[in-house]
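This part of the workshop introduces the protein records we will be handling. A record pairs a protein's sequence with a compact description of its fold. Comparing a sequence with its tokens is the quickest way to learn the format. The record below serves as our worked example for the rest of this section:
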Amino acid sequence: MIKNNQRQCTFFFIMTMFLFIFSGCGSSSDEAASSSDPEAIRESQISELENSNLIGNVDAYAAIQGVLAEAAAPMPAKVFIIENDESVEEGDGEKYMYSPHYLDLPEELQAKSDAEMNVLVKLRSYYMEAGTYSNEGIAYTRYVQITILDRAAGTIIHEETLIGSAPFSISEDQSAGYGYVPEYQVLEKILAYFGYSEE
């Protein structure tokens, strides 16, 4: 009888240990899965950005101007990126918002607060008429102007404009055709300035 009780105790003890180990592994693997899930990471980054004071200052950042004085970025560079909102009608003036490119910067480049941000990148995207089609439709070329400002010095330390692909061909019933600048090229140009390049 005593032997049976000892066996039962040993059995329950072993089973309890197995359950404990497996439940622990399960939760840690779930955490690991969520920490490597790109969507979960992106949501976490957006949440962190929305809780910072960077977004609230976008209008002030948009107003920052500077004299062009090509130079290296301050070290360590802590960057925030804004871009013009093309959905705003021309007559209403330009409106800026934070750029999703900010979330694609390496962690060490991302400014986490207004006090920390010492480099501002302004992206201004627009179309310009490049010609007409045989059906009188208008052909537009895409441009993205990249302006990098040293916030403390009040200077533009780098500026360049990317010119998009030739406008695509259009059908007879279309009134306009547009070229484009791939988003990855914009990010590559920004990263290249800060010394990051694809290997």
Q: What stands out?
A: The chain is about 30% helix and 25% strand. The chain has a mean pLDDT of 83.
